[in-house]
Amino acid sequence: MALLFKKPWEIDLEKTSNYIDASSNKLEYSSWLLLQEPTELSGLAKLQQQKISNALEAEIKRIKPEHHLKTAIITSVLLVVIGYLGFYTGISEIFNFNRNAISEEENMSFEPIDFLAVKQQVPVLKNQLVTINHPSYTGLTTTSTSKMNIKALEGSRVTWNLQFDASVDSVSLESMGKHRKMMKTNLSFSGSTTLNNSGFYNFKFTDTSGATYSSDLFTIEVIKDKTPVIRLDNLKQFTSFEYTDNKVLNFGALIIDDFGVANAHIIATVSKGTGESVKFREEQLEFDTPVSSGKKQLNLSKTIDLDQMNMEPGDELYFYIEAKDLKQPKENTARSETYFAVIKDTINYGPGVEGGLGVDLMPDYFRSQRQLIIDTEKLIAQSGKISKEEFNSTSNDLGFDQKSLRLKYGQFMGDEAEGAIANGGEIIEDNDHDHDQEEDPLTEYSHAHDSDNEHNLVADSHDHDQDENKEEEGPLADYLHDHGDPESSSLFTDSLKSKLRQALNIMWDAELHLRLYKPEKSLPYQYEALELIQEIKNSARIYVHRIGFDPPPIKENARLSGDLKDIDNFNKKEERDDLDQYLSIKQTILRLEELKISDSKPKDTDRKLFKKAGNELAKKAIAEPGRFLKTLQQLKQLGERQQISQELIIEVQKGLLKALPKIALEPQRQGSFGGKLNELVLKELELNE
């Protein structure tokens, strides 16, 4: 206390000045003049200040404060070595007389449930111990502690040991509504359980006179074993190979687990064929690096040769990594994302000979309009990053795909292949052109609406002949569905046919700009064509309204008779559980208010209500550990004690009110101001109006 009052470690200028004066005779005990302002000193004092200043510059190098740092360092090092040797050899354990003592914070206290039943001195808990045996696969050592709040891994075996200073009849452990009696050995009691879920627990014991005592609540927090984490390096989600490429996948995998990896392998699936003839073959592949079971981190590598897996052009490979940890009895399994590898098909759709004519065989697969939009946007984004030749070539290929899609949709309109004939569903290009005749190089790709019908613009006599032929066909020719007429052979109605024709015309424009290497101008036309195609698809769908009620058949002889003899009123009774999760807590708050006003003792029905409220509060306390633990303990005391105090009721009410969720505000009418004076004022205002 004297050191705290004097504070000798604090050094000020006055103490420094006194020490300097005492250490040197040349300063004439006048160093304090250096602390004063020159304006406050007399002329003689200023001369003395200047003299002392010059003398101090010479003396300050010689004056040093006394200290014993060297002795202190040597002494402290010596004591540390002696302490370490005493702890290492175990000599210090001889002097540890309180090694079994329990700190006041960790000490578990018991309170009697009924104070009137206490007839003898309350047994005191002498020793408390919790032993946690972790699962064997974790490799963790057994831990012992006197703290009753437990935090352990799922599947751990927990053993409690309680020792009293006097004889006790029985001790039981209560956890989440379950009672478990502990085994007695002399004055100590022990019990154990396996942790699977988080929760709360407490102890109860009965002395030899029959009085029952209860402890506070303690928490059990169960930690779940995490699944392994898998990370892949140097591997793309989708990889494609040409037939002539080196079809090899090289990648590395990093697998991490908190307690060790048991096994890891690759699940690969090879698909062959197309359509209904597709076949799948599943294989389990091992890593090139051996998997060491029990390691917390594995760095594995794998090389997959598609040729060794007997894959051919057009085949696809799907694979993912699966890892399992050491958890018992059921291990945790983790799997990575699925990765793909494809060998491109080598089939060429080039010119061939069929029926003596040159044909261009088209593939079975056509790009959709949506896919064309995606590829066009991708090409626009790559503008400037790729060469002009590659850009133009890709744009021209997209124009060809747009043409293929337009011709495919044209088949639904009954159109013949443009500039060709349809032979067995294949498009036959007409390559006979008069190269001697000068023509516009864009004629093949442009959509010239004004010149499509020039060959039909002939003399009026031709129209007259057509009318005569029409009369010969018969009066019903206009109303029959002639499959030879492309315009009347459509699979759609007239309303949808006009939309499809409009979409085909827009595809013309989209193809034109792609052929001109201007994909950014083609994109709006593609979006417009896609929108029309979607409208056509939606129009062709049939929507069925599903009705859940099937009425009974009506008796014909009873119809419109007005007879209500056998007709009864419809009554329906339905019982359902209350959806309020905090119903018992709300009822407990109201009941505690009644007990507080009436100052009466709780009944058996009240104890049951308190127990239900405790179960509801326990669910919330598990989700928010530590926040409602005290309220849960006090609520348990209310359900066990015969007499309760007003202070305890108030504390429990406060805790329960905090546990209730905030009520969402709802729109409601505000109350108007009332009173006799307000009514008189309103009447006067009405009269004056």
Protein model, in words:
The protein is extended and about 120 Å long. Residues about 95-100, about 350-365, about 420-485 and about 485-490 have low confidence and may be disordered. α5 packs antiparallel against α6 (about 390-410), α10 (about 585-600) crosses α11 (about 605-625) and α11 (about 605-625) packs antiparallel against α12. The chain has 14 helices and 25 strands. The chain is of the alpha+beta class and about 700 residues long.
Map the helices and strands.
Elements: H1 2-6, H2 13-23, H3 43-59, H4 69-89, E1 110-112, E2 125-133, E3 143-145, E4 150-153, E5 157-164, E6 168-175, E7 178-181, E8 183-185, E9 188-194, E10 199-207, E11 212-215, E12 218-223, E13 229-233, E14 238-241, E15 248-256, E16 261-272, E17 279-285, E18 297-305, E19 316-325, E20 333-335, E21 339-343, E22 351-354, E23 357-360, H5 369-381, H6 388-410, E24 420-423, E25 426-429, H7 460-473, H8 494-515, H9 519-539, H10 583-598, H11 604-623, H12 629-640, H13 646-659, H14 676-688
Helix pairs in contact: 5-6, 5-9, 6-8, 8-9, 10-11, 10-13, 11-12, 12-13
Please supply descriptive tags for the structure shown above.
7-stranded mixed β-sheet, alpha+beta, 14 helices, 25 strands, 6-stranded mixed β-sheet, 32% helix, 689 residues, extended
